[in-house]
Structure formats: C-alpha cells, structure tokens
Amino acid sequence: MRLGWAILALAAAVPLAGCGQNKREALAECRMKAARVYPDWNRDDEHSGKAGDFTFFCMGAKGYVSADAPDCPKGRGGVDEVWEACYRKSWPWE
Questions:
Q1: Strand partners, 64
Q2: Is the residue at 26 inside a domain?
Q3: Is residue 11 part of a domain?
Q4: Largest Cα–Cα distance of the chain, in whole Å?
Q5: Mean per-residue pLDDT for 57-73?
C-alpha cells in the first residue's frame, strides 16, 4: 500500500516540476527580446528607455510586478538597469 501512495505522489509531482520559469530566466528572456526590438538600446537614452519599458512590461506579462525596492526603476530604466531583485511574483489579488 505504501508503494502505491509513493507512486501516486510522484506522478502528481512530476508535471509540477517543469511548470513555469524562474525569475532569472524570465528576465533574461525579456532583456533579449528588448535588445532585439531596440538594437540601439546602448547608444542613446531614448532607445535605452524604450528597451527598459519593454523589459518592464514583458516581466509584467509573465506575472511579475515591481518589488518596490528603492534602487529599482519603474520603467524608463535601460535594459541593463532592470535587476532581478526589482521583481516579485504578483499576488492573485493584484
């Protein structure tokens, strides 16, 4: 009987193990997309700000919100200015 419960628990846990991506992967993906959309992001402030906004909204689309840390930009930060610590998963009521 114990083996049956162990198999059932393993079968339930395996699909959950691969769900979603972590914050670091999500941010890296958003930064790469921003750099593709705004290839001149590192040449001038306008494109840097747009790339930062793109990254900010991309993370929002992935279910992350601003962590409200004092050093974190709320959009308009360059793509290289958006740090992992600036995001957290949103709560269901947000």
A1: 89
A2: yes
A3: no
A4: 66
A5: 86
